[in-house]
Amino acid sequence: xxxxxxxxxxxxxxxxxxxxxxxxQMITRGxxxxxxxxxxxxxxxxxxxxxxxxxxxxxxxxxxxxxxAGAPIEDLLFGFSMILLTLAFWDFFEGRAKQxxx
Length: 102
Description:
Layout: H1 3-21, H2 30-52, E1 67-68, E2 71-72, H3 74-98
Helix pairs in contact: 1-3, 2-3
């Protein structure tokens, strides 16, 4: 399995968890897209720094080949999945904390 496959699997898993397991429907909310838009430039900056210093290197045979800010475009899929799951879990557990305890 190559990096691209794992990145696509991460997105599918995150969306399925959000919509059907946690049922937060985070991906359908405007606040998610605003949050993701705020975080994305920092992800790109971090990707650029890590790849330009050769701290993180990617095998050309394991990625699609297109890069953005030095990192493979697939890396954006991992960031998307991470933000989606973080906000979905936050919403899920916040809702559980507000429920009256029996």
